[in-house]
Amino acid sequence: MYAIALMLLFASDPQQEMKQDVPQPQQQGTPTDPLFDKAYVPTDEPAFVLSAIESARQGELDARKAAETLNKPELRDAAARIGRQNSATRTRLEILAKSKGWRTPAKNPDRASTLPATDAARTDANFIVQQISFHEATVAQFRAQLDGRGDADLKRELREALPGYQKNLDLLLHLKL
């Protein structure tokens, strides 16, 4: 009797059957995770600026560390360019936030680079993959914010910063190593 109950219990997984019946979301023809791969939407300006400043600060640190550790001159140049873009964007957004009375993130003196350090070839590859992901997300976030009905000054800053991030993304996607 127990054997029959166990056979019935493990014969089919109801959760698996439910997954087969539910159409999976797709973005540009590629299956996506419905919990994490949602399209970016415009958000509250102070919250957006807070997040963008924090992201740019991390991007600056990662680029600076990469420029110090990467072996190939092309990658060091790309890292320096990315660092300059993040620094310029962060500075402009901090000035905007202060002029609007919006909160800026607290300084984080213990911030660490997110670039994993391994052997030279792996570190180079990690940098490229990490930066492509960062730039794709940044471009998508900026475009979504620009599509909203938000603050005109913020939109001006994003319109001015967006081409730099797009150029960096194009550079990363077409690196010849």
What can you tell me about this protein's structure?
The chain is mostly helical. It has one domain: Ferritin (Up-down Bundle), CATH 1.20.1260.10. Helices cover 68% and strands 2% of the residues. A two-stranded antiparallel sheet has the order 1-2. α3 runs antiparallel to α4, α4 packs antiparallel against α6 and α5 packs antiparallel against α6. It is globular. It starts with a helix and ends with a helix. The N terminus is likely disordered.
Overview features:
177 residues; two-stranded antiparallel ribbon; Ferritin; globular; 68% helix; mainly alpha
Number of helices: 6
Main pleated-sheet profile: 2 strands, antiparallel
Q: What portion of residues belong to β-strands?
A: under 5%
Helix-strand topology string: HHEEHHHH
The CATH architecture classification is Up-down Bundle
CATH top level label: Mainly Alpha
Biggest sheet: strands side by side, in what order? Answer: 1-2
Compute the separation of the termini in Å: 65 Å
CATH superfamily, by name, is Ferritin, core subunit, four-helix bundle
The amount of helix comes to 55-70%
Mean pLDDT: 83
Write a brief caption for the model.
With 177 residues, the protein is mainly alpha-helical.
Record the SSE blueprint:
Blueprint: H1 2-11, H2 14-21, E1 26-27, E2 30-31, H3 45-69, H4 73-100, H5 120-147, H6 152-173
Antiparallel strand pairs: 1-2
Helix pairs in contact: 3-4, 3-5, 4-6, 5-6
